[in-house]
Write a structure and sequence with these properties.
2 domains
Length: 154
């Protein structure tokens, strides 16, 4: 926020800044909803990402081979096919070979050189407390605001 406040669009485009703010708001709302629905539940913030959407978009783009672009009718047909593919892979996860480019080494053995490659995390690779009971959203919000105000004063 500080960099955007001082440098504006020279730091990041406005749309990306807005997306970041919406993402933060979404994380707060999702944690609050989880605390209400299941106070003893767990919440993985990494699942708010777009990995599944990216994978499905890849299916849409490659489902017909060389014809990667689509009009509205073709897109609707391809999305329907992607939904069917997702349902089949849910029933038979062993058929899903995954992506050869989305590989996450075990976090315990990942060294600093591998750290820059880690982009696609999943709950089994996550280490840490993900329970929502001890989370105080008001404290998190106030602490974040304090840090932002401090950065703006500097």
């Amino acid at each position: 926020m500080q960099l955007y406040a001082s440098d504006g669009r020279r730091f990041i485009p406005s749309q990306l800044y807005i997306d970041l703010m919406i993402m933060i708001k979404n994380a707060f709302f999702c944690v609050a909803k989880t605390k209400v629905d299941d106070p003893d539940g767990k919440f993985w913030i990494i699942l708010l990402g777009t990995d599944r959407l990216e994978k499905n978009f890849g299916f849409v783009r490659t489902i017909t081979g060389t014809d990667a672009n689509a009009d509205v009718y073709q897109l609707a047909t391809r999305v329907l096919a992607v939904v069917q593919i997702a349902l089949i892979l849910t029933e038979h996860p062993e058929w899903d070979k995954g992506s050869r480019r989305l590989h996450l080494p075990a976090l315990a053995v990942a060294d600093a050189a591998e750290g820059h490659k880690i982009d696609h995390l999943n709950p089994t690779s996550w280490i840490g407390d993900v329970s929502v009971r001890p989370v105080s959203l008001l404290t998190c919000w106030n602490r974040g605001r304090d840090l932002a105000e401090e950065a703006l004063r500097e």
